[in-house]
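seq as requested:
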Amino acid sequence: MPATLDAPQAASIAALVEDLSGWERTVALYASDMPTAYGSKVAGDAELLGWICQGVARLGRDEVHQRASYLAGYRRVWLRDLVTSEIARRHSRRFPSVRRLSMAESRASASVLYVVKQAPVARHLPFAIDGPCPKCDDAGKIWATWVIDDASDWYEGGFGPCWLCQPEDGAA
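struct tokens:
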């Protein structure tokens, strides 16, 4: 992808990148020809956008979306220190270079903040855990003591939606 783009081409690339979430941009950058030792250099916006488009063209939009969902799910599990060996093995097979993934995440974040903003629809990428949920074993619910009314110290035990693998709204 050339480092300099004419106006119509730059507009179409910006429109494509705008529809990608940060996770999708990460996957696209990982799959592109972006140098792994790219961190200390500051490339132009056109070069960064070109790498993102190259990664999407190389993998295809659906594969980028699926890998991004798994990456978001992995990070969700990783942040809670619940990564199982099965999830880690699948993640390592999908992203063998930790350094390259870190670089791609960093550049994708910069592209969201400084280069091309995300379209509102791109912000709602569903996450997917690649394997059974380590918290509920894919039951979708967990037994816990739930706070009913904090002011009156009212707590009840029962099943509720799993906070790790269920959507934010708790719908099972």
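Helices lie at 7-18, 22-31, 45-59, 61-79, 85-94, 98-115.
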